Amino acid sequence: MHTTAAAQRHTGRLASQTTARRPWPAGLFLLLAAFFLSGCASLPSNVERPVSTALANPAETRLGQLVAERAAQASTRNDSGFALADSAELAFTSRMTLIKAAQKTLDIQYYAIFADDTTERLFDALREAAGRGVRIRILLDDFNTSGKNAQVLKLAFEKNIAMRLFNPLPGGRSSMFVRILSNLRDVDRMQRRMHNKIFAADNAVAIVGGRNLGETYFGQSEGTNFVDIDLLASGRIVRDLSGSFDQYWNNQLAYPVQSLMTEAEIRALKPAPPAATTNAQSSVAVDVASAPRASAGVTNPTTTERTVTSPKGVTTTLPALPDSANLHLLTWIWAPSVMLVDKPSKIAADADSVSESEDTAVDGLLQLMSQAKTDLLIVSPYFVPGARMMSRFASIRQRGVRVRVLTNSLASNDAIAAHVGYARYREALLAMGVELYEMRAEQRGSIRSFGSVAGSTGSSLGTSRASLHAKMVVIDSHLLVVGSMNLDLRSKLQNSEVGIVIRSRALSAQAIRMIEPALASSAWHVEEVNGQMIWRAPQGSGLEDASSEPDTSLSLRLLLKLIGPFAPDEML
Hints:
By secondary structure, the chain is an alpha+beta fold. The chain is built from 16 helices and 23 strands.
């Protein structure tokens, strides 16, 4: 979710509630008092930050040994293996399994972790791992740690679990509105967020991608469920990711939770969510057993080995891990890779603003895209190109490269402000020949080919909606990029991001097989016909083409037009 968009939604909703209160002068007084008192809030000084680093020798662990064995069996010179997790079920069970398999360390870095029943099951597994001696480090961006979500911070007081908050905001945590109001004097700093997502076990196997932790990211919400995709990585690239984690963990912007709040203060905010009905061990077994899989490269969970038909040296399999309760067996593809990552200094308070000419993770991605010769397939939920990125697209198209973009529709976008930025470039993109697809806000979780939220165990998806959240680029059918960054100026200029670039036709082909069915059956194809924008209905949907933003109200479309001329790209 975009930080600005979230702030705007919370501010707008709560402000409207405030105006309804009587008498108004009292409400105004409270708002003004909170605003002026915000100048008194500050972060603690002389904070102790004991330096720690990732596990030095992954080979000491079962995970590390399994990775080494599979690499040897694959007879490959490549030192990193990868697998795509294309469903909410597999995303959840993969994390649970890594927690259970870890023997030494778990390093977890996220923009947001939401307190709900789904994450409570993950927390139970983390507590069990800590109890058996696993060292757990959790690095979390501070923006969403208010209200109910502040309960996540209780993990910092568990034995063998250390938690730090990156770029914390001074002031209260009783609600998101209070946090925003308390920091209006420093909006620029409030906008700079750590958006990285890394989940690493024993410095041997890691999960990266766009997914945060919460029920909406694992297909468990009765409201909106995010369509996402994860990349599982093993080998050398994990050590690179862990090195990045260490840089952020030991940075001066990372504050131990204990330096900001006491356990009593956290408990006083709001009661903890009810614990899951099953313990961590049994929940893993149930989830895996009840999540049927039909995707390429994933075996039936009851088997112990998968027969690989790909050429020798290209793919291999990961067996059921010790104590993993029948993990889905994944086909690892060994391939050359490199990490794209921003430095922590990108969002430091004294960084002023990142120049558009400065190298960032998004810059690295754009440089790769500029080298495309035949085809670009882009998945970006928030797509706000900006002038310089538009120039890149124009240059790419002039060389005859086919460019397809899958992003959110106005109806499926959880951040209306982001859609405002995208909409202002839509006609120009179509004019230069870029093919635009907008995810339909499904009333049912029926997106089975890409980041499936269909059939998620324990959720009532008959009333849920889908919102695209995956970030992926495929270049010339042989370069695959998966990470946390969107193609927008927020990712380029304000957020820190991380991603992995993999040179593999096999893995790129898997990604294309996931995405292209979604383009055909789950997205509106936007075209310009005789000067008029037309949204072509998805194949087999039974819907008619639309001449305005589909599945939206007139008031929402008017709001889009009203905001459009005034909002700067970098704030979207």
